[in-house]
Design a protein that fits this description.
The longest helix has 15 residues. Helix content is 21%, strand content 26%. The chain is built from 7 helices and 15 strands. By secondary structure, the protein is of the alpha/beta class. The chain is globular, with a radius of gyration of 18 Å.
Length: 302
């Protein structure tokens, strides 16, 4: 398959089940479009025309245009990122994250989680550009108590779109052994499975969210490290998460990977490679007495 020309469509009618009985929704169908990226790594401009693999692909301007086109088709859009928006081009070296988060704000991102490369300039390297982020930074399993980020990062956020409550929480990868201790200082890494259980309890039981999304920078899978937590393990070891939007491993999935959770319910996992080359799209259609239909695509940027 020529990935440069790739657009994948698939329909998963049973991969997502709303928390509340579907008859509670309005009689007319409601469509929510979730758009997502991961591991963009400061790729502001498209790849050059002579690049051997990704010629003319990616770039913020092309992604912004694509997002605008989709919003014109359906205004009920939730735009998410799974971390590592920093590091990878001279734009980060010079602007230190300010440009990346300014542009994400202009594109209308709702939330991102914190990837390991967000720590490349230390905790101040997150705090300083934070003023330019007009979106939520979500991380439930990094405890920033006793650091300059205490109280500045949210564990979760609830977005109400077209009458549907979507709960989103963030998870980050283990920092020890991956990031220099001087870069994260007193930040504590908390167990993703335990934290996810708490997040589901809060979002589903307390706030009655219809859909629960995990923004994960854990990585899709680690075949050579069976004890390392990944998106696949998280899906199988928890309950209540409907969609895991992943990052960190730069995994390109032609279509979402679906696994059963502890209660034998399906969990959708998706990740769209890296560098802003692709934009993930998940269309959720809520219709009275007909369940939730899920249609997914991977859209080429450029």
């Amino acid at each position: 398959m020529n990935r440069r020309n790739f657009i994948q469509n698939t329909v998963l009618t049973s991969a997502l089940a709303a928390t509340n009985p579907i008859e509670l929704f309005a009689e007319n169908e409601t469509k929510i479009t979730i758009l997502h990226t991961n591991d963009v790594h400061s790729h502001i401009e498209p790849f050059p025309s002579d690049h051997p693999r990704n010629a003319n692909m990616g770039g913020v301007a092309k992604r912004a245009k694509l997002i605008q086109q989709i919003k014109a088709e359906n205004p009920n859009v939730l735009l998410l990122d799974a971390g590592d928006s920093f590091q990878g081009t001279p734009y980060f070296n010079y602007f230190e994250g300010e440009l990346e988060w300014k542009l994400m704000s202009q594109m209308g991102y709702h939330a991102t989680t914190i990837g390991n490369h967000e720590f490349d300039n230390g905790l101040t390297g997150i705090l300083k550009p934070l003023e330019f982020a007009k979106f939520d930074l979500l991380s439930a399993n990094y405890d920033f108590s006793n650091t300059i980020l205490e109280g500045r990062i949210k564990p979760y956020k609830i977005y109400q779109i077209a009458g549907i409550k979507i709960g989103v929480f963030g998870l980050g990868v283990e920092l020890q052994g991956l990031v220099d201790k001087r870069m994260y200082l007193e930040t504590k890494y908390l167990d993703p499975v335990e934290i996810s259980t708490d997040m589901v309890r809060i979002l589903k039981d307390k706030h009655q969210c219809d859909v629960i999304i995990c923004l994960s920078h854990l990585g899709f899978d680690y075949r050579n490290e069976p004890n390392k937590i990944s998106d696949k393990k998280l899906a199988q070891l928890t309950n209540g998460i409907d969609v895991i939007i992943g990052g960190h491993t730069h995994t390109f999935l032609e279509k979402p990977f679906v696994l059963k959770n502890k209660m034998d319910k399906e969990v959708m996992i998706n990740q769209v490679g890296a560098y802003g080359i692709y934009l993930g799209r998940i269309d959720l259609t809520f219709q009275k007495n007909k369940g939730v239909q899920t249609n997914t695509r991977v859209l080429q940027v450029g």
